[in-house]
Design goal:
Elements (H helix, E strand, L loop, with lengths): L3 H9 L8 H28 L5 H19 L3 E2 L13 H9 L3 E2 L2 H48 L12 E4 L14 E7 L4 H17 L4 E7 L18 H29 L1 H6 L4 H8 L3 H7 L3 H16 L7 E4 L2 E2 L8 H15 L5 H8 L3
Parallel strand pairs: 4-5
Antiparallel strand pairs: 1-2, 3-5, 4-6, 6-7
């Protein structure tokens, strides 16, 4: 609709001189149709949705002005030596056409009008168009989130048993929670320390997911290195230093317990580039987490570490895991396309609080997800 006038001038092939008035009729028809479309949308706003869009009304007014402009630009002939404009079909008009009287509108008026129309259409494309596309994209994203959440909710619920040997991270409950749920949401994460997406997810989980859930979540870490040297279920050596990373963090855990493990977890992920280059040493890790370097090197060769790793890998086999990060919320697998989508986790939080019968802290959720 908003390109009708510009198209009209292109069809007219230049200034609407009297000899091309037939083309001007076609252009005028296009503009009239555009104005009719504007009238329809104004009716929709007033009668159907009962809401008024200021920017939309501005564009509809522009359509009306362009329609008036088209009337003003109607091609006519001035009689030679005359002051007025001869009516079409009159003797003076016929004489003007025969003798080459001055055309109306003038080239200057036409150019100024054409520039105005082009600018208006450009503004509409870059302002209204982008606004509409953004709204469409947001709607599409919302529908996608709904489908992904429905997929998660209807997915198979695996029985993932937790033991006292699991690596569990808890978070402080938000002060805005009037009544925290009796049990935190359980998220089991199968990960690889050399996997770039695993590192990004670990950061995303700490910085956003924990906030979205008001701290009512516990992260359970399980190893699944993509390296056949320590993971027989993997055929290709995707991450050559992943097995060494397992020994590093598990060695720290043997010396400093669960808290030490999570310190090593964060440090290794923050220094993932060094790990990929093979330059991350036990001395660096020991210094960062506060354990003895010699003791760490000794612990890294422990059979207990191999046993713990194999237990994680065996559990992963029962879940048909073949890549990382593999995320399970309350036993249900989360599609890898939305594991780092804050809106998806907001839906998880709503589901979790509704199931627990606890009022959700809306202010905290809006802040975490960036909603206004």
């Amino acid at each position: 609709m908003y390109y009708s006038t510009l198209l009209a001038w292109l069809v007219g092939v230049g200034r609407p001189v009297y000899a091309k008035r037939g083309l001007h009729y076609a252009a005028f028809l296009l503009v009239t149709l555009g104005l009719g479309g504007s009238a329809y949308f104004v009716w929709i706003m007033s009668r159907v949705i009962s809401e008024w869009c200021a920017w939309c009304m501005f564009t509809h007014v522009l359509n009306l002005l362009i329609f008036i402009c088209m009337i003003f630009m109607w091609p006519r002939r001035r009689p030679v030596g005359g002051e007025g404009i001869a009516p079409e079909g009159s003797v003076a008009a016929v004489a003007a056409e025969r003798t080459g009287g001055a055309a109306h509108p003038s080239a200057r008026v036409f150019i100024l009008t054409l520039i105005s129309i082009v600018l208006l259409n450009y503004a509409l494309v870059n302002m209204l168009g982008l606004k509409t596309w953004r709204r469409t994209a947001e709607q599409a994203a919302e529908n996608y989130q709904k489908s992904m959440f429905a997929q998660w909710q209807s997915g198979r619920e695996y029985e993932i048993k937790l033991t006292d040997k699991d690596r569990v991270r808890t978070y402080p409950v938000s002060a805005s929670m009037i009544q925290p749920p009796p049990m935190p949401l359980t998220v089991v994460i199968y990960s690889d320390f050399e996997c770039p997406w695993c590192g990004k997810f670990a950061q995303f989980f700490d910085e956003q997911v924990a906030k979205i859930l008001g701290g009512n979540v516990r992260a359970v870490f399980r190893h699944f290195p993509l390296n056949p040297a320590c993971n027989p279920s993997i055929q290709q050596n995707v991450h050559p230093h992943a097995c060494e990373a397992v020994k590093l963090v598990e060695g720290v855990r043997a010396l400093a317990g669960n808290e030490g493990f999570w310190k090593a977890h964060d440090f290794v992920f923050r220094n993932q580039e060094s790990l990929e280059r093979g330059t991350l040493t036990p001395d660096e890790v020991a210094k960062a987490v506060g354990v003895d370097s010699a003791a760490l090197k000794e612990r890294m060769g422990s059979a207990e570490i191999d046993a713990a790793l194999q237990q994680d890998i065996n559990d992963a086999k029962s879940l048909d895991i073949n890549g990382t990060p593999a995320v399970y919320v309350e036993g249900r697998h989360v599609n890898s396309l939305v594991v780092m989508d804050a809106l998806f986790w907001k839906r998880i939080a709503d589901w979790y609080w509704e199931r627990a019968g606890v009022r959700r802290p809306a202010r905290l959720v809006n802040k975490a997800t960036g909603d206004q």
